[in-house]
Amino acid sequence: xxxxxxxxxxxxxxxxxxxxxxxxxxxxxxxxxxxxxxxxxxxxxxxxxxxxxxxxxxxxxxxxxxxxxxxxxxxx
Length: 76
Fold this sequence. Notes:
Blueprint: H1 30-39, E1 42-44, E2 50-52, H2 65-74
Antiparallel strand pairs: 1-2
């Protein structure tokens, strides 16, 4: 009896996407984030997008470019 080693390339073969994962994170009023996460209400981002908060951003997460521009104008 012999044993063969079958080599597989290191690729991600998952076909399902996690639809809950945002592509970019948006700027939203801080008090609305908690309310949305707990109550399931929708928030309005600085760019105008409306959505329920399902994930929190981690350092280095991609941020919406339109939200960045609006926020930069607000800081002046």
